[in-house]
């Protein structure tokens, strides 16, 4: 198994890409700490893992609160004895507005979760990776190309990419690899509202493969970056968007 004897934290593990990755990690032998704001969703993920014979625990966490993130890391080490992998995945989208119409509160709310949450994950997880480790941060293709009407989301995800490069440079000598993934449109709760709009037929086919991705496909990429198979990859942002940026 590719993650045998590894311990992983997955934030936003209650659904979507986080849940798919938690299940994938467990199947590959990892002990998984499922972290989420929602106790119901997080516990459900843990139960799904246990149903397939995996090992998992749940911790409720608000990634905007330093005490919560610190507690998440502490409980993981206390329960499983170490920390090898962090999937910094928790995030939110933003409503569609032009920049002058975005309130400072809306801007700050998105950055608090998408950027500060990733920073706090790095801040408290890295000191526990005494034998090295792998960190994967969830960015977005919106953080690479920018996307109109979602300035806060695009800017916050671009910041995640910069944080990824910085952390990779700072901690490479400790054998801690830090990479990011940049998904396109993936079948998660985040796109449910988009499906109700007239532009969905265009959005859902706006890539080379003419379909949206599924969380399991993203989980496969995260697994690769978490495993020793990617041992010479760090500071990179891997796009998984069905060829959207190529059009």
Task: Please tag this protein with its features.
alpha/beta, 7 strands, 8 helices, single chain, 247 residues
Which of globular, elongated, flat, extended, rod-shaped describes the shape?
globular
Second-tier CATH architecture: 3-Layer(aba) Sandwich
Question: Main sheet?
Answer: 7 strands, parallel
**Which strand-content bin applies to the residues?**
15-25%
Task: Please provide the count of β strands.
Answer: 7
- Name the CATH superfamily classification: NAD(P)-binding Rossmann-like Domain
**Distance between the amino and carboxyl termini:** 37 Å
N to C succession of SSEs: EHEHEHEHEHHEHHE
* Biggest sheet: strand arrangement: 3-2-1-4-5-6-7
Total individual domains: 1
Compute the average pLDDT. 96
- Radius of gyration, in Å, reads 17 Å
User: Structural class per helix/strand content?
Assistant: alpha/beta
Classify the helix fraction into a percent range: 40-55%
Continuous helix count: 8
- Poorly predicted regions are none
CATH domain topology: Rossmann fold
Oligomer: single chain
CATH class designation: Alpha Beta
Topology:
Elements: E1 7-11, H1 16-27, E2 31-36, H2 39-51, E3 55-60, H3 66-80, E4 85-88, H4 104-125, E5 133-138, H5 142-145, H6 151-171, E6 176-183, H7 200-203, H8 215-226, E7 237-240
Parallel strand pairs: 1-2, 1-4, 2-3, 4-5, 5-6, 6-7
Helix pairs in contact: 1-2, 1-8, 3-4, 4-6
């Amino acid at each position: 198994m590719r993650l045998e004897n590894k311990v992983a934290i997955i934030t936003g593990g209650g659904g979507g890409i986080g849940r798919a990755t938690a299940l994938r990690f467990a199947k590959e032998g990892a002990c998984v700490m499922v972290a989420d704001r929602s106790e119901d969703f997080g516990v459900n993920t843990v139960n799904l893992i246990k149903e397939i014979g995996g090992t998992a625990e749940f911790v409720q966490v608000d990634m905007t609160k330093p005490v919560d993130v610190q507690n998440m890391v502490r409980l993981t080490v206390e329960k499983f004895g170490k920390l090898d992998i962090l999937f910094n995945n928790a995030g939110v989208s933003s409503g569609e507005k032009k920049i002058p119409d975005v309130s400072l509160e809306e801007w700050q709310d998105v950055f608090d979760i998408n950027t500060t949450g990733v920073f706090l994950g790095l801040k408290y997880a890295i000191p526990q990776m005494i034998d090295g480790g792998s960190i994967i941060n969830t960015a977005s293709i919106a953080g690479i190309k920018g996307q109109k009407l979602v300035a806060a989301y695009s800017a916050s995800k671009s910041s995640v990419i910069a944080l990824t490069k910085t952390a990779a440079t700072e901690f490479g000598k400790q054998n801690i690899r830090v990479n990011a993934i940049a998904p396109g449109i993936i079948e998660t709760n985040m796109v449910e509202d988009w499906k109700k709009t007239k532009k969905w037929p265009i959005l859902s086919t706006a890539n080379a493969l003419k379909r949206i991705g599924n969380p399991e496909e993203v989980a496969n990429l995260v697994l690769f970056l978490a495993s020793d198979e990617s041992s010479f990859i760090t500071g990179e942002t891997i796009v998984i968007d069905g060829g959207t940026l190529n059009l």
